Amino acid sequence: MVQKAKILLVDDRPENLLALEAILSALDQTLVRASSGEEALKALLTDDFAVILLDVQMPGMDGFETAAHIKRRERTRDIPIIFLTAINHGPHHTFRGYAAGAVDYISKPFDPWVLRAKVSVFVELYMKNCQLREQAALLRLQLEGNGKAEAGEAKEPAGLLAELSARLAAVEEQAEALSKQLGDESTDAAAVATAAHLERKLTGLRRALDALEPGASGGQAAVN
């Protein structure tokens, strides 16, 4: 069963949170509310999120300050942030949003279809990364199993190795299709870069897996 991704919605106005939930409900993911920057940071302590939709203008800790805290934490620094704002003070204000670490900066009122499409891209990238981590964990188990076999504990690796290869091939196919879709649609540069990073990780994992095949030379490849 595929676990749903979590999307963090941060806005001090309940009606705005309700509107975001209505727009994103079609994605069938887990939507988590936060009514302040402090509440958002608390949620990020315990849960992993695919993307954060962050209102800029909030009382107390505003969106820029909240984003700065998110980017300073190692656990959360790589989570994509989409800023939402009802104010527009020109290029300088937009630049401040990108400088704070946002992958996108959207002014209200926004097109619900556009917002949903942007969020769906980051959800899909998040799911692919989760699959990649799962394959890496299985690979580590295989490597540990090989080490035990060398120490004299009999173990048959062929079955697990074949399963790893098949599951990795499925992820590779999905990642290739996603990258092609992003390229065809000229999506945000940040999403394209994230997809490319995912493909590089998959390539490293495939090399490491190939090195375990009987008769492979060169030893164990590193997974970056």
Please tell me about this protein's structure:
The chain is 58% helix and 11% strand. With 224 residues, it is of the alpha/beta class. The chain has two domains: 122 residues, Response regulator (Rossmann fold); 60 residues. Strands 2-1-3-4-5 form a five-stranded parallel sheet, with helices on both faces. Helix 3 links the parallel strand 3 and strand 4. Helix 5 packs antiparallel against helix 6 and helix 5 packs parallel to helix 7. The C terminus is likely disordered. Keywords: Coiled coil, Phosphoprotein. One of its GO terms (biological process) is phosphorelay signal transduction system. It holds the Pfam family Response_reg. This is Response regulator.
Measured as a percent range, the helix fraction is: 55-70%
Overall pLDDT confidence? 79
The strand order across the widest sheet is 2-1-3-4-5
Separation of termini?
27 Å
Helix-strand pattern? EHEHEHEHEHHH
CATH architecture of the largest domain: 3-Layer(aba) Sandwich
Report strand %: 5-15%
CATH class of the largest domain: Alpha Beta
> What is the SS-derived class?
alpha/beta
Can you count the helices?
Answer: 7
**Integer count of domains:** 2
Please mark out the parts with pLDDT under 50 across 5 or more consecutive residues, or reply none. Answer: 218-224
Which terms would index this structure?
7 helices, disordered C terminus, single chain, Rossmann fold, alpha/beta, 5-stranded parallel beta sheet, 224 residues, 5 strands, elongated
What topology emerges from the helices and strands here?
Layout: E1 6-10, H1 14-24, E2 30-34, H2 37-46, E3 51-55, H3 63-72, E4 81-85, H4 91-99, E5 104-107, H5 112-150, H6 158-185, H7 189-210
Parallel strand pairs: 1-2, 1-3, 3-4, 4-5
Helix pairs in contact: 2-3, 5-6, 5-7, 6-7
